UniProtKB/TrEMBL annotation, chains A, B, C, D, E, F:
Keyword set includes Nuclease: yes
GO MF: exonuclease activity; nucleic acid binding
Protein name in UniProt: 3'-5' exoribonuclease
Keyword Cell wall biogenesis/degradation: no
HD domain boundaries: 162-278
GO biological process: rRNA 3'-end processing
Keywords attached to this entry: Exonuclease, Hydrolase, Nuclease
Gene3D superfamilies reported for this sequence: Hypothetical protein af1432, Nucleic acid-binding proteins
InterPro entries: HD/PDEase_dom (IPR003607), HD_domain (IPR006674), NA-bd_OB-fold (IPR012340), NA-bd_OB_tRNA (IPR004365), YhaM_exoribonuc/phosphodiest (IPR050798)
Domain of life, per lineage: Bacteria
Species per Swiss-Prot/TrEMBL record: Scopulibacillus darangshiensis
Length: 318, 318, 318, 318, 318, 318
């Protein structure tokens, strides 16, 4: 079956989809309608359910699966779905949530092997043990959660995929700058966003938890490093420096780090995080633009709109 | 014996003093000299030791007691001490460090009673138990450390004195705004700067520890609240909210809080902290100015210089 | 009769209300409608009058009383009123504007007594006479005007209520910090926002006057202090310092004060103003949120949304 | 006699000079010396009086005339005066302060005629009367004071000269943009900096008064316009708009204007003020640089250093 | 025939107009419509074409001429046009684009004479030859293009009109400040915005070209000065300084100039550019406001709204 | 012979050195002295020549070779050289400037091969030809100049070494993100700082040229790309995009780029530039710190001071 991202204006849709978000509006004539963001593995689309009932509001909430019939229209250059029929999925439909969500291009097992291999390469025993213990504690969520609610790697297993990309990047960079301490760098990469498994509500249709809102993933993880080190009987400067790497990885106070990077590997961790996240955002935006066109405005890139040259010979790869 | 703060230009000094800081300079003719900040209970003075030897550099380091002879001169309106003789204190001198340091106007016991009394008024058992346990863990240092290295309450027991002042202020304010949750407010005040006992090196001539520089007192304390709660078997929203109050008490990212206050009592905690700290800074600066004059520039008050009106009838009180 | 703030979705309204603001819109089909903010003593509600006529536009302007029939609907979690019938109030209705506006929880007489008492406590004759003369000049408006058009104390007598709260707060704080000059502080509090009686158009449905827009309440009051002092034959440093306290009470240039506070009591005036205003905003926002929920975004608090803990035992009080 | 600005390294000086400022220093060997800024009509020079006595400190204070002997040396490309002999001027010396100060290139009478002529061209009677009355009140000081303590027009009669230049500029600009209201523009120019006569201490060696520091020349003048209008029985919108023009002439809060220009002529007033002040600063800095060189850093021009092209055919004129 | 700017609510329109921009919307009921900005020589109006077809979207694109029938309505105080009939202009209509666009108040020939005269006054041969050569290269576009897409002089020949106004202004200012090098100033004015002929797509309904977006008119012109100088065999400091004047004419990095003005005439060029542009914006906004009213918010003037005094005797002139 | 970086306090020096900078001072007793920065291949040292003569000032200017005798002293933890004898180098000394300057760790030939190889890998003929032509034009200077006057790669051939490091980095990154257009990236890296050969005065003791100060290396190179493309007959989008990559490589206006990166490879170019420059700065600062210590403050890293962990097993490599 064709994915939701691949329809064109005027086509008919009859499709299983997952509700990503739902909000109620009133027409200028005062009638209620629902705006649903609906997704499958290929992407998402904004759907309009006109003349919605209170029952509709109650049923079609985030993270529920639905069967939808409708027409594709366009608005401001984007596809929209005019919903003509919608119902909740039942057990008879035999559709699983995993069929309806985007996920990382690598399998969980592949990524687990990769991360395990990098941990194995960490020689400093204190650093290795802390990293291993924390990964073990959060292993399931770590390989399922997205890296963010929006902007970059915001899909199932996005967090782990982002970490694996950064680890590969770190290995390449450390090959060119041999003074880099790869123990610190690999451990810092694996731990830097692990607090997201507490900050976010789940792997799909994620929102922020109370701890996420009041403390944030950085403080959450800085805490856990201290706690875990104590539990497994590790102390010494390595603990403080790992905490510092997580604490400072957003680089500036106004971006969420109360201390700037004060250790070389912390600075590099920040730069690699930034490089991989921006590459992901740019590739996905450029994929949707034709050669010779500009992308839509990218909020997380200071609202820039990027140009896709006409002469490029290679296609952006997701 | 007259305190070091009370000498005038031209007088002779023969005095026990504590070295607060020491730095080496070269005269424009290329000769070494030491600039020592020397203190007793009444204040401190900059001393110059001309033609200093390597042995002098080695001996007169921060937190050592010395016997000094010299003359008072003035420079840019401030007293200076031209050191003619200086030696380390020996056991024969029978002088104790406590005799040479400024400290809070209340005794440790008085402040301990006060803080204990406020903890007793906390009704929520989770909040009370966490606060009590943390105070117990750090009790000695908490009642001895300064509140800061400079700017406000930077003397022995300054931290506890700042906390007691804020608790009294909180009680007064809560009397006028009955919606305030005094459990949260009292606990937040007691814990907000407790991380300073780890951030700073000691009660006198304090500098920053490695943990202080790489993590900061806010992150340190946010960690300890989680750890202590776990140790004493407390969980629930109270833990997260106490962590949040400490995390947010500097109010803005650029002032060191990765999250702004998102709970009413956290906002009020920030305001009372600010009020008490500024009052302390302003009183001490105005005390040194005569009516009709401006104070020196106050770095921590955006470099302002304050005016002391001529008509005031009350004297600033320290 | 039930207040407008206490209706639920689906209920019928038949109610006297005061028009707070009115603006015309066009439906996407090109038809005119009016959006009216309508209030009584309990709060306000957005009303939609569909298919409005030019006569409607002409009649239902700010500060007029109307009789309204309609249904309560909801939109984005807020109540809306779909107006089915609306007419101007006539003398037969026997309804007074005072019945339809929110006002301070204390009576004008109580507040007048309070302020008079505080003026009586001012010992410096120059400060007392200026304060008394200015209060006398603006007495009626001072006890009727709101403290602001929006954000805090934006109701009848809000200005005086804000001043009384600050005076009580100042008395408490001065009890703990005896170096504070209460003469300056009380006078500064009474005068700091008095220019609002010229900056704003009236006690209800207030907007900005030309002087308000071109000069602002701070400059207006700084002028009046000089003028009044001259009229009653007072001169000396007290005049300049009172002017300075008003001039600097917003603390920073970008908040409207061309000079920062350079006198201790001016700094404290700013802080108490801030504390009382924020307490008012926070209490009112939290009152509308349930325990465990976040408030709506609060523009005047840097767009924060505040959390109301689940465990609180006390209710916010307005 | 050659002016102090025209000596070269190695020459002997024997000269009457005015002390502009005086500050005490200590050599690195601990000996006191005075740094005096000394001026005559051609400019100023930094003088060093080594081994100064307390009597010297007492005598050689700002705004006193002295007779000085010494040698010209250079330091960082600037002349310095090594003082070998210095004494106070006595009545026998027959030297007047006016002989030792820089002043505007036009005489007071010429400038008075010019300003009077422009006032005469103001047609609106309210605007004309207020302007005339204020000029009369401050006439002597207005034609003697500098426009600032430093940066631009900081010499005797600098304020009036700056005003006359701006008036001529305004006439030219209004000729090209006939919609400009010259009544407002001329009055605004004459009044915009008149508050300096209260903000500054005098015509020579000026410092800030208490009113200057606590209120500033803008607030001072905004007050006086209101007061004067009342005294001469003028009211109406003209008063508010003249106040607004003075209030807003620094254009931005962070530059001292609590309101930005909201009337066209207020915006133009700001621009002409800026243009004349910068032209004065740039001309004087470039005059000291040779073609092909850069000037010293100019603090009031964002610390820029300006280039003087090699090919220019015209010399900068002061 | 009455111009489109002069209709009132309720009147019928039957008019030739030029499409300035076109965008598609959806009604809240999901039906497509077009919002067209339509202009003639007197101004522009927003038109709504309800129930638009794909053919309409295809036909009514920017820079096409149309014949329109409809009614004038109002929304938020602005006229709107409800389109009842619209068709493309054909050759039978005998209407030219020049009849439908606003243009500068001076003819191209008059402006060409003026600019030529100023070039003739440039005495330095290098500066004169470069300016002349560049004007020749871009002569047609230079006298046809607008000075900007919006905000100021955004009409046919707006660029040349802006340049002529600035040249007249420069002549007046240089008369008062004789140290100004008019060769540099006149050349800088003529060249400063000439890059717009490459940055923008055309004289009417202009948008940004790829070079405009990726390089900007400043870099484009800095390049062309170097290239042209080489072509005509001119070198020396004059080339670098002309490049610098164009490079720095926006004054600050955040306004598009990588270097601030470092030559006096560059600073004055910036100020005159600013003065003429703001005068144009202010006059046009004030023309639409009645005495005693405020204008709409002006984005390019920091979102200010300007007051038009009641007492003014002169009308704003465009 | 031991390099100047390897002496300790108290040792005697008798050494050939190159003058990097020279400035005159006055002792507080009024006597002239010279402060010389003197270098050899191992680093530089500040030397003091007391009681200097006008002849000394004339002789010991930047980029001259000298023979120096003196003693090593220390000041604020840094070595200083007290000069006892100094003379200019003559032909008899048989010392070459190349013996006294730091230079890149790779030879010019090695780097030339590397860059040539990368150009060879560029497949797009337009991009390759422009890059090749520009390298040929500036080849000698390109392989000799430093990358900057201070902060990073500020030694002979530093520019080419920085480019080679970035090319290697780009190859590694492009291997992991196959959507990157290596043609653009390699060309952008080779050209991004090539304008420095015009901005700076030479390979050693470099200062800024007039073009450097008034235009900057970015504008200079953007010009040259256009010019060179025209000369070799290349046009098309490639030219504009290469210009854009150079123009935007500082990323933000306040860092010198009038346009932000709007092409993916331009963004990546900025990030790799930043990564290589910071790595160079950090490695060199950490090399001078002992494990467990902090470095001196690093101006170009926001004034941070970096910590060198105690447990690191690898040494920083230059």
């Amino acid at each position: 079956m064709k994915g939701i991202a691949h329809y064109n204006e005027g086509e008919q849709v009859n499709h299983y989809l997952l509700v990503k978000s739902s909000s109620k509006g009133l027409t200028s004539g005062g009638k209620p309608f629902l705006t649903l963001i609906l997704q499958d593995q290929t992407g998402d689309i904004e759907g309009k359910l006109w003349d919605s009932s209170p029952q509709d509001e109650h049923d079609f909430i985030p993270d529920t699966m639905v069967k939808v019939e409708g027409d594709i229209t366009t608005f401001r250059g984007k596809n929209q779905l005019r919903i003509k029929g919608i119902r909740l999925v039942t057990s008879n439909d035999q559709v699983k949530k995993a069929d309806l969500v985007m996920s990382a291009p690598l399998s969980v097992n592949t990524m687990l092997d990769k991360v395990t291999q990098y941990i194995f390469e960490i020689k400093n025993p204190a650093i290795q043990r802390i990293t291993r213990a924390l990964l073990k504690k959060h292993q399931d969520a770590f390989f399922e959660f997205p890296a963010a609610v929006r902007n970059h790697h915001e899909y199932v297993s996005g967090l782990a995929y982002h970490v694996v990309s950064m680890l590969n990047l770190a290995k390449g960079v450390a090959g060119l700058y041999p003074s880099l301490d790869t123990d610190l760098l690999y451990a810092g990469i694996i731990l830097h966003d692990m607090g997201k498994v507490t900050e976010l509500s789940g792997a799909t249709a994620a929102s922020y938890t109370l701890e996420g809102k009041l403390l944030g993933h950085i403080s959450i993880m800085v805490n856990e490093i201290a706690e875990t080190a104590k539990e497994i009987g590790v102390d010494g400067e390595e603990v403080v420096i790992l905490q510092h790497m997580v604490l400072s990885h957003h680089s500036k106070p106004e971006w969420g780090s109360p201390k700037p990077p004060l250790v070389k590997e912390a600075e590099i961790l920040h730069m690699l995080d930034n490089l991989d996240a921006k590459m992901n955002m740019m590739d996905r935006a450029l994929e949707k633009a034709k050669p010779g066109d500009f992308t839509e405005r990218l909020f997380a890139l200071d609202n820039r709109t990027l140009y896709r040259p006409q002469f490029e010979s290679k296609l952006p790869v997701e």
